[in-house]
Amino acid sequence: MTASITVEGLEVVFDRFRALKGVSLDVREGESYGLVGESGSGKSTLLRTITGLAPVASGTITVNGKTLGKTRDKAFYRDVQMVFQDPYGSLHPRQTLDRLLQEPLAIHGIADGEKRIERALDEVGLGKGFRFRYAHQLSGGQRQRVAIARALILEPSVLLLDEPTSALDASVQAEVLNLLEEVRRRRKLTFLMVSHDLAIITHMCERLMVMQNGEAVETLTASQLIGHRVSEDYTRNLLRASEGFVRV
Amino acid sequence: MSAETIQSRRAWLLSDRPVSRLQARLGRAYVAWRRFSANRLALVGMLIIIALLVVAAFADVLAPYSPTVGDLKNARLLPPGAAHWFGTDDLGRDIYSRIVYGARWTLYVVILVAIIAAPIGLLVGTIAGYAGGWTDTILMRITDIFLAFPKLVLALAFVAALGPGIENAVLAIAITSWPPYARIARAETLTVRNSDYIKAVQLMGASPFRIVLRHIMPLCISSLIIRVTLDMAGIILTAAGLGFLGLGAQPPLPEWGAMIASGRRFILDQWWVAAAPGAAILIVSLGFNLLGDGLRDALDPRSGDQ
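Above: the input entities. Below: the structure tokens describing the complete assembly.
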């Protein structure tokens, strides 16, 4: 299997604060890879750096064999798309879903817009009835479906997911995760998924990396995590914390 | 139209699953209209502005006399009466006719200033806010320089340099009134530029130009419309002030400010010469202010779930 995303010695600095301290990672094509860690561990920063939203201080990022420079070209964005954490903030408040989904097509000059928009809405389980609604007329789960549709409409090969379900309640979380699983299987997508929820990561991902304070703690497979075969104390603490309250 | 069809039309407008672009847009406009029309004073303001538009459009029909040619021999400084509703001025011209024609010039000034100043402010503000860094610093310092001068004094300087006349007055007012719009647009831009929905568009590969034009500007426009409407009264007053100082509209143009200026000489004995155009300015300014207040309630993106 070939590598889809390779990150080597990535450093990101914000005003002298080192958000990422030499992180390396490689994600194989068609794989679902998880990033786990507490808040501020740099997992979201890693995603944002790959997309070009955060500046690289040093290190290299290679996506589908192309090493990325300072700026990303349009071709990159056709290949890599991202779904944001907060579905309430990631949809433009003054645009109908139709406008929202048309935008990427217009930017990339794709002609069969009508068909693609209908297909995209169908794919995420929103019918035609939703097409001319505004974001404020949708529930959180529906909004996240729209965000997924928008990411998929350019037919990327890599999807970056920044805690895609943490703003949703439990039953809706399951729906959205199942939807993501389904599109990944159908389109053979590569996922790089950030979450602080170990259960979601073990359910969705084959391999994962545990991060703390901008550094990689260890890399595990999902089965290692389920079997608690971990070598670092920090990961053990995370596992204990994820088991929740224990009645004494 | 029966009550039933009205009911079904309303349901069509308020449908939460519109079937076309047009229906979605009309539905939104209808919601904004309902919020606007709930405010009685705003409706009064709108009626005043509509009346101003009608008067300006049908000035030829509504004015019984010529606005520029008077009857010097028989009709100088007549008090209000049946023949001359608002009296006549020192050149024997009917003041009512002059005010009716003056509505055209008032609208001309207000609309031209809004068309020139608002886009400049919007463009400067959104570009400064979105680009940040040096672009922002340079554009905003230029804005600050313009803001540092009192508006009327700067307009005076421009008119003095360009020469008196209503076109130059419009230009001078426009040049002095864009900086507040730039500030508003920049402030609005700063609140949205780091939001996820703008990032999402960046991640589609949109150019900065496209983002500013198609995604940021629409969000700034409603607060700008409100501000421009509220400023209209100020624009009318500045134009009147320039006219009053003899730097705006030149005789015999029936511009309201210039009319007050010429009536000033006999304000104690023939009060109606200055009072009528003064009242016209007052009413139209009030109309724009009430309309602006109503628009703020109807369009403000922070109120309600627009």
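Note for the figure: The interface with chain B takes residues 51, 53, 72-74, 76-78, 81-82, 84-86, 89-94, 96, 98, 103-104, 107-108, 128-130, 132-134, 136-137, 147, 150, 154 of chain A (CB under 8 Å).
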